[in-house]
Amino acid sequence: MSESKFVPTFSTSEATEAAFYAAFTNCDLQAMDVVWADAGVICIHPGSMALVGREVVMRSWSNILTGAEPPTLKVEVLSRIVRDDLAVHLVEEHITPVTGSHEPTSIVLATNVYCLETDGWRLLEHHASVPRPRQTTH
Q1: What residue ranges do the domains of the chain occupy?
Q2: Quick one: CATH architecture of 13-129?
Q3: Prediction pTM value
Q4: Which long-range contacts (CB under 8 A, 24 or more apart) does 61-69 make?
């Protein structure tokens, strides 16, 4: 008897986004795998070139999550647009390294694009970049 892989159904783009960030926070590659769409995926990590194709994208997440210490991650939604079978979320990610680290919190802007597939909402594109520092006036 073969073992079937349980794939949760995400009824909204918000539920998919919550699952994506939970997978990231928990360094859970299997959970990360189920949030991505079946085809047409693109991922751009901060300072990286575009990774096109599900296999390449999942390999990048494997490199990031495997053996990593779970970060503290706070996500602030800046904008959310949902139209029929496509949703675009603009978020600000506040990523703090593991407890005891002397590294500061990183702020990353990310655009997450979700599509509605036959089994629910999935992540189609994740484009993350580090914003320029805010200039202060004296």
Answers
A1: 13-129
A2: Roll (3.10)
A3: 0.87
A4: 61/29, 61/32, 61/33, 62/29, 65/23, 65/24, 65/27, 65/28, 65/29, 65/32, 66/27, 66/29, 68/27, 69/27, 69/97, 69/98
